Every structure is written in C-alpha cells, then in structure tokens.
Task: structure prediction
Amino acid sequence: MATPHFGSDNVSGIASEILEAITSANGGGVGSYGGDGLTDSLTARFAEVFETEVSVLPVGTGTIANCLAVSFITPPWGAVYCHHDAHIMVDEANGPEFFSGGAKLADLPGDHGRLDVATVREAATAFPVDDLHHPMRAALSITQATEWGNIYSVPQVQALGDLCTELDMVFHMDGARFANAVAALGCSPAEVTWKAGIDVMSFGATKNGCMAVEALVVFGEKRKEFVKLQRLHKRAGQLFSKMRFFSAQLEAYLANDNWITWAAHANTQAKRLSQGVAAVDGVKLLHPVEANEIFLSMPIAVYDAMAATGFGLYPISPSGDGHGSIRLVTSFNSDPADVDTLVAAAQGA
Amino acid sequence: MATPHFGSDNVSGIASEILEAITSANGGGVGSYGGDGLTDSLTARFAEVFETEVSVLPVGTGTIANCLAVSFITPPWGAVYCHHDAHIMVDEANGPEFFSGGAKLADLPGDHGRLDVATVREAATAFPVDDLHHPMRAALSITQATEWGNIYSVPQVQALGDLCTELDMVFHMDGARFANAVAALGCSPAEVTWKAGIDVMSFGATKNGCMAVEALVVFGEKRKEFVKLQRLHKRAGQLFSKMRFFSAQLEAYLANDNWITWAAHANTQAKRLSQGVAAVDGVKLLHPVEANEIFLSMPIAVYDAMAATGFGLYPISPSGDGHGSIRLVTSFNSDPADVDTLVAAAQGA
Amino acid sequence: MATPHFGSDNVSGIASEILEAITSANGGGVGSYGGDGLTDSLTARFAEVFETEVSVLPVGTGTIANCLAVSFITPPWGAVYCHHDAHIMVDEANGPEFFSGGAKLADLPGDHGRLDVATVREAATAFPVDDLHHPMRAALSITQATEWGNIYSVPQVQALGDLCTELDMVFHMDGARFANAVAALGCSPAEVTWKAGIDVMSFGATKNGCMAVEALVVFGEKRKEFVKLQRLHKRAGQLFSKMRFFSAQLEAYLANDNWITWAAHANTQAKRLSQGVAAVDGVKLLHPVEANEIFLSMPIAVYDAMAATGFGLYPISPSGDGHGSIRLVTSFNSDPADVDTLVAAAQGA
Amino acid sequence: MATPHFGSDNVSGIASEILEAITSANGGGVGSYGGDGLTDSLTARFAEVFETEVSVLPVGTGTIANCLAVSFITPPWGAVYCHHDAHIMVDEANGPEFFSGGAKLADLPGDHGRLDVATVREAATAFPVDDLHHPMRAALSITQATEWGNIYSVPQVQALGDLCTELDMVFHMDGARFANAVAALGCSPAEVTWKAGIDVMSFGATKNGCMAVEALVVFGEKRKEFVKLQRLHKRAGQLFSKMRFFSAQLEAYLANDNWITWAAHANTQAKRLSQGVAAVDGVKLLHPVEANEIFLSMPIAVYDAMAATGFGLYPISPSGDGHGSIRLVTSFNSDPADVDTLVAAAQGA
Result:
C-alpha cells in the first residue's frame, strides 16, 4: 500500500498512462539512438502543442536539461542572468558553469522568484557589451513556475522577452513545472513561450508523472544552431541507445492533454491544502500559492500533528520561537482524501 | 509483431523481468534522488555479486558511465591509455576529454581490440612522470568484451593490472558487454575485475536487457575518493529524481543471475549465427567470435540474401570486388529460429 | 617627453631598477623553463619577505594569477565567495570559472569593496556542505587593497581567516595592489597574510613598477598541493622558457624594499591629489583614499579643467546634473609637480 | 662571462635590438591593455610582412599561442589532426584539450615530424563528418620547422592546404621556429602560409631572440571570427596591461628583417656543427639538418668530450652499446668560434 507523500513532486511514481506507453514501446527491434518511429514523430508532436516549428531533444533529468540549455545559449565568456534562487544558480552543482565552459551565472533579486525588467536591464547594461574584461551579456533565464511556486503572467514574460530582443540576449525558460504554469494561466503553451520571446526551454515532465524525461525545445532563429545542441547532447551522454522509451513517455505525456490535466489536478490540490493549513492559527503563507508548491511558516506543533499522519513530509527548518518553515508539494496523483486528512491534522493541532 | 534485428544489441527492447521491476517499483511516494529503499540496497547487491565491498552509482547511458569514469581516474593533466578503437577514444563525442577537464586520451594499437603489457608500458614510460610539459601517465582503460567482440582472459587482465600497480596507474574497465565476457569466461565477476587489478568499472546493463541503466562500480582504495564521483555524477545530471526506477532495473538484472543467463544466450546465438554464415563461400570472419558480436567480410550477394529476410541489419560497407564488411549482433532475446532463418538465407545465396 | 597619466597604474612604464635587472639577466645561456639561478633563488627571497616557508610561481599577468589561484583553491563543484566588485568576479572575462572547471563565483555585498564576517558566514552556511545539489563552500577571496582603493586592517583579515578555519575554507588574497596595502598599514607582509589566515595569494608587481610579472604565493598546509599548481601553471602557458627575465623582475622588485618604497610614494601622491581636488566646490570623494586610487564625483567643468592639462585621464562617466564620476590613480613614478599641476587645474575650474 | 649553451634555443638571452626596443618603449604613460601606439601599428607591420590583411594578437609563450590557436580552430567536439610528436600533442601539458573544451588531438605518424596527405585524408575521413558519436574532423595542425628540425616545402604545405579546403578543415601552423623555416626555404612568409592554405598560425619569436613574445596570426576568412580569439586571449590572461613592451619586441623582431637574419645565422651554425660532429666515427644523424636543430646518435665518449668543453648541453639519453641520442640546437647568437670548439672536442674524442 502506497504511502502519500507531500514533500516533493519527485517522490511520486509514474502515471499509469506513461507506464503503459513504455510497455507498449517494447515491441521488437527498432533503430537505436533515436532511429525509431516514436522519436521520429516527437518533433511534430511538440510542434502541434506549441503551434510552431520547433527542434526537440529528450533528456533524462532536469539538471542536464538546464545544463545543456545554458551551454547552448551563451559562449563561455558570456553572462546568463537569473534569479538568486534559480535552479541553474544553486541546485545544479555548478553544472551550468561546467557545461558552458565557464560562463557566468549572474544572480539577481526578485520577489517570489520573479525577475523584473528594471533589475535585468540594470545588470545587463552595467558593462559595455564589447569590453573584453567583463562577462558579456548573453542570455536571460527565468523559471516558470518559479522556485517559490509563483507564475510569470504572459505580459511579464513578454516584457522580459522585449528586453532580450533589445539587448540581443537569448531568452531561456526553465520549465521544470511548466505544465503547472500553463494550467494555472489558462493560456496556450505558445502564448507564454515563443510568442512572448522565449528562444529555448527546458520542458519538464518527470515531476508531473513521467519516469525520467524532459525535453529541450528550441524555437525560431535559435533552431539554426540546433546541430550544436545535438553535439552537446550526445557528448553529455543523453543520446539514449534505447531512445524509444524516452520518446514514448513524452508522447503519452502530451497525448490527450494529459500533462495539463495532471498539472491542473496538482494545482487544485495545492490550493485546497494551502487554504486548509493556512487557516490554522500561527500558520503563514510565505508566498502566494499559484502552482503546486506551498511554502509556509508554522508552529512546530502544527507540523508535528501533520507528520503524525504518517504521510511523507520534508523536515521542518526551525526558525526560532517554536516555529519553522516548510515546503509542501502536491502531485498529479495527490489524493484529495489525503489532502483532507493532512488539513484535518493541521487544524486539530 | 516484432521484427527481429541483428544490427545491434541496442535495438532490442526491455527484458520482461526488467519491465516488471520498473512496474513493481511504482508504488507510492518514496524519497527522491536515491533516498529510496531500492537504491539503498543496491550497493549490497553489487558487493554480493563482486564478493567485496564496492561503491556504486547508477547512470543512464554507457557514454556517461565512461565519461564519468575517465574524469574520476585522471587529473586534467593526465593521460589515459586505451585502444585505438576504444569507445572512450572514438565513440563518446570527446566526452572523456570534456568531463575530465582536458585529459589526454592516448590511443594504442592491439589485435582484436586488445592491449598488451609491452605496448602500454612503452607508451606510459615514454616521458618522465614528473615532467611538467608532458601528459602525466594516470590510467589505463580496457574494454571487456572488446570493441571487436573479443575477450581478455583473466591472466591478460591480471598482467595489465600488475603493470598499473607498478606504474601507479588507475585501471578502468569499460564493461558495456561485461556480462557477455563473464558468461564466456565462466569465471566469477571478481576474478576478472578487482582481483585482477581493476579499480573502476563501467558496468553495462542496457545492451543486455535493461531499458536505460549502467553502473559505475568502484573497488578497493579508489573507494576513498567516492565522494568526488558523487559530485561529478550529480553535476552531470545523473542523480535521477526518481532513482528507484533505475535501481530497480539493476536489481532485477542481477537477480537470479539473469544478467549471466541472458548474456550466455546471446553468446550462444552469436556462435550459432557466425558458424552458419561463415560456412558460406566467400564469407570470412574478421575477428574470432567470443561474445555476441560478429564481424564479417562477405559477398554483397550474401548480404542481400540475408537482408531479404526482412530482418533488421546494419548497412554493409562495400570494400570493393563485390564484397563488404558487416557487423551482426545477437541479444538476450535473439530467437534461435530467427538465427536459423538468417543462416539459411546466407547459405542459399 | 613623457606625458603624465593619472588614469591607471597600468599606464606607467617600468621602474629603472626593474629594467636594469632584466638587462643584467641577459648574460649567456642558462637553463630554460625556470632552470636558472635567478628562479632558483626566488623562493628563498619570498620566504625572507614573508618570514616563513612559501612556494612561489611567477606569472605574466594579474588575470592569470587570479585564474590559477581560483583553480587551485576550489574543486569544480565548489563556491568561492568574493565581493560583488572583485576582479575575479567581473574583470577576468570568466577566467576563474573556466580555469576552475566551472566553480561558482558567489558575489557578496560590502562597503568600499570590503567583506565582513557576518555576510560571508551567511552565504557560506546557506546550504549543508555535503549536499550534492548545491555549490560546496570551498574558499573565500578578498582583494587587498580593494577595488575601491580601501584596505582591510589586520584584525579584519584575521577575523575572516578565523571564519575560513572554522568553515574549512581556503583563504585567498588578490594582492594586485598588495604593496600599497602594506605601505599604508605599516605592518609586515606576514602579519596581513599567512599570520591572519591567508593560504594563497596573487602577489602583484606589474602595477607597481614591473614590466609584466606577478607571483602566486602559497603558504602553510596548502604547500603540500603545490605540484598541482605547477601543473596548472604550465598548462596555462605560464612556464616561460626564458623565465629568468621574470624572476629577475621580482628579485629587483623585492630588493631594498623597492616595492614598499614605490607603493608608499604612490599612496602619498594619492593623498595629496585627493585632498587637493576634493577641496574644490562640488567635488566629493566616493570612497576614503587609503591606497593609490581615488574615486570622485565632480562637476564636469572641473574634469574638463583637469583634462585641459593634457595629462592622461580616463573619460568621466556622466551621472546627470552636470556631474560625473571618475577614477584617478597614482603610481610609483607619479611626479609631485604633476600632481600639483592637476590640483591647480581643478581648483582653478 | 657568458657560457655558450647548445641544449636549446630557449637558453639564449635577448637580442640587443629587442632589449633596446623594450627600453625605448619605456617612455611616459600610455594606454594600457594594448591601447598604445606600438600595439596599434602591429597589425599593419604583420600585414606588410605577410603581404595580406591579417589579424594579430601578441602572447607570452608558445604554449599559450598553441592552446589558443587550437581553441580557435575547433569546436569542443572536433578533432585536430597533428603529428604524433607535435608540441600540441605531447608538450603542452594537455593545454590544447583544456582550452578547447575537450577537443580531440588525433595524432598521426610521419617521417621527420612531417605529415602527408594520404595519412591525414585516411584519418579525417574514417568517420562520417555528421555522425554525432565520433569526433568531428575540424582542423589540421603542422609544425614548421617540425619537431625533428625538418621543413615542409611550399608544395607540401600547399597539398595539405588543398586537402583542408576539400574536407572543410581549418589549417594551423605551429611556427615556433617559423623564422628558421623561412630562412631555409628562401621563400616569402606568404608563400608558405596563407598562399598555401594556412588559416591560423602560432608565430614564434622567443626562441629566436625575443624575451617572451609570440603572435597569433589569422588570415583570410577566419579573420571574421577574430573577436572570439580576442575573448579567448583575454580570458587566458594574455591581455598584458603593459602590452607596449610585448608589441615593441615584435616590432623590433620584424624590423630590418632581423628575424630572418637571426634565424639564417642559427641555421648556418647548425649545418656547420652537424657536419663537423657527424664526421666523427660512430656518430649518426637521426634526421636531416634543415633548420637549427640537430638530432644525433653518438658514442657516449664523444658526448663526454663535448661536455668537457664546459658548454651547456642537454644530458644524453643512453641507448645501449655505449651510445646515446642527443639534441643540439643553435641560436641567433651562437658564436661560430664556439661551434668550432665543440666540433673540435667531438673530433678529438
């Protein structure tokens, strides 16, 4: 019997549709290293989803998706602007610097993990772009939804996209939880990506029901350099010999709007869970809940009551005065009954 | 209905035991990034197989296994000696040089993909080890079975291991087809690895029935530096968030000697296939068939007859005079009846 | 006839004692790549200056001194904390990231280019040191004198050194203007370096009268890893074949306390110049003048009057309202009469 | 009193014309980082010497010239073909691999350090250029004069240049002893470089009378990417702050055909020395003497007699039977009388 877990969306297993797709792909011999029918049709599938021509490569983890994306959008002497708390800044073990041959990850502040135009402009214009001594502005990377579970609106992305055009910077989106963002915005995938100026994205799938797959998606003019990304991808050990099993996951993920349905479910449960818990005395939301992540400050006693359910939770970080901060995350398969159980526990503390 | 394919072992799908293991692992929420029970028990499982303490990390492809292994066994200013046709030399898109920060891959000749002591010694002692100008000898890497489907005997590995000890070099084995080698040798995994001097190995599993998993296995003294390998592994995007599905593959692979059984089957079919085809007039074996790969020179007409079966084959490389060279590979799931069909086609040409 | 220049200390030529040393070193054939008598005695000379055993390597520029230092003090997965305006952060074209194989340069705020213990502690303890996802705290780098011409006192360095000991971080000093700092502090070189916890330093000489030479100086326990620095140094093209001409510069620089005398002169002229110019209406010092750099806000008209002397000045950066900001720098060979001329021009504006 | 030295051309000091140029450049303040008149005129000077438009950057050593050249001519996933004994292969401490981000240095055999078209063609066409698994052919590098003191004729360079054009490879010349080659060939610098297909060269000067300077010279179409080389150059710490003293060396080197005159002298003395020593019983030339390097096999007794002169010699490498192999090198300032003394010693053995 499975134990519910609200510590991360990575603790969830595989959605049954995805597992079936892997099983179905297991027919006879097919070409290796992507020379299979499933991989062949993947680009068309993504083009359909994004309503434009795209270039696509499946990869195994979000870390490598981000590392390859960064190495694709900047020369080694370039600067990539990102939020102070961005995954590419603090959660990829310096992989972005390594894979890019030493590019500068330049971190900037912003509420709830969001960057705004003024902050980026100031940093990106601090040095003349042709001065050999300084990091050369090269790219901007945003996370959608942000590391604090918040969402850039379409106009917010567009404004940053316009700045990138003005300053001749490549615009990257870390979309580890892109499905949650699209589900929350209710917009089309196109509107909040290439139509708003995004050139390259890390398209997440693992956190939202897949086993292990993300996609690098390239739009517009950057597609002309796609062969470079293919070289980087192979060199990083991401050209899986039995690629069909990764393409099959993405195919099933995109089929029937599964990805949006699952993310919408997770978002709904996060709303439900956060509202229930935040109603408890002494509990405070640290960030608005806009996707599937909830950041809270709460009395340790409330946490203890929740932990007593036996459900999986991440440890609380004590902040003094009997309080602590905690992250709760809902998933494609979070059971509303479990959410209710957790809320009840908190409210009964 | 599945089409038989004899072009590569990578064209095969997933063994049913492996697919079941993935499915079984799909229970409720468990810790991510390896904080799950399956990953916890993996090291003990490998220790049992190798009859000694080991340190183990699962990775997604053979390319990254080799890249991380090379970056673990040499400093950037070191030289890694390997065969001229070794995967780390010519098939990993310069990944070994990249991941190691620029180490020298120094290629050496040898029949059937094998290196011998004299050749390695001459290269490794060409320069004084403490001369700052030259690549510093650091490691030796051999492939077992070799790129030409041949196998190092235990004494051959031991002799190279002794040389590594003498010259203070780390000894790496690229074991992409290690199961085939062990099955052919009839020895224990220990005898032909750490007991013969191997420090680090790329332990293959994907080619022999898994979906996508290999293991980095570290023996003896090198285990003291294991934390470095963990850092390299995470940075390369190999710390899968849903690691349990990779550990589950390895667990099922090693269970019940599955890996040896499957490899032995592939080896047997390769013998059967090679003997049948080599009996045809004008067909010549380019290397002895000792594992599951067959390298042949044959009349184009014989190839055409084989291709007419509709089975998957790699294209033949014409060498003039109506002949060409071709690789045939058998797998854990090659059907003896298909082998017979292919042989009959060749013999009827 | 030489034109006085107050834009940088790099615009100055070579001190006559240094040029004579180069000329004197030009005897007959001597061993190349450092196999000469001058290089042999260099380590002893530095040991004398620093009153302790040291390991030393001459290099050609401050950029490469800093790049090699960073690559020596951190693994690729480490974080090096430094000031937001540090040269290693913004003036070395991402060289520190490149040479270190992708280490994180983590920038921190601080008045006048100085870091304090609380700021460094907070950043360095933000993540558990053994968590594989995050940059691992590895080193702290400070600039002495700072990029804004200010100086860490001995107790300030010591406090940061104690923190490095506590948190097991290597402590690096970028001493591009170390001579100016020592001259201003009136302390011994030892007191403000290894005695206060410095492990590795970039010892500047070019800005203070040499033609092109700096030294990497390693103290204490880090000396055990010196062979690694030698490998990095050769690989970076810093093992000059005619090394004697670089060692000769350093020898003459350290002889007779030349380096301190020259720096003290520059500091004195900076005081004189800054006091004279700051007395003008509307002129404001942006940072205290403690070494040989002066940062000012002034009316454009004052700048224009100074520029009318014909002396070399860097362009003023307009800040609106008829004002702008400007850097003035004095050198080992700044003529007091020229300083007076410049002051008079400013005061007559 | 100077001791003659025949071990290397690096053991020589600085030609008086070069030293005077450094001294003359030591006027007042001039722009730093190349913003000086001497550096401004350098490109025009090289254009005159090579009779075509060029792009030029001074660097401090041959090692970094080669490292930057390699990183300029290949992507990280490319292969650079070179001779088995080439400096970029074995004498730069893996710098070419490091600076290029992991490019493959693919070594090829050839008599006297020379490569021929057939050998390069075979290696460069071994894999399809667009196959993602293998190193992608990117560039060819030759050394002129070769590591064994031999010279490519103009037609030999041209034939390799034509191959590079055919296979779309960049063509690099390591010209550490380019002056000796031009002096020996009696051709124009243009004829044996860009007219014969060379795109990028490491132009040596240090071994032939300078203190410490080489130049990266870029021809033709590759000049369009020159800004990339400028970034790499700064990042490598080669943008000297007092650049005028490096430009001054190159200016004086090229003035009045000094470089050719000095190299011709060295070549003449090498002929004289090799003929005298080779006439001794038991002495054998290992390679034809075409420039300023002499490689000999000789009885140890002959070596001992030469060493008894007190002149500097490199140690002999014993090869058994009382013989050994030795390199002798002449320089711009080798005294004919010293050559005679050395010959007499050998002949008197």
Observations:
- Chain A touches chain B through 54 residues (CB under 8 Å).
- The first helix of chain A runs from residue 16 to 24.
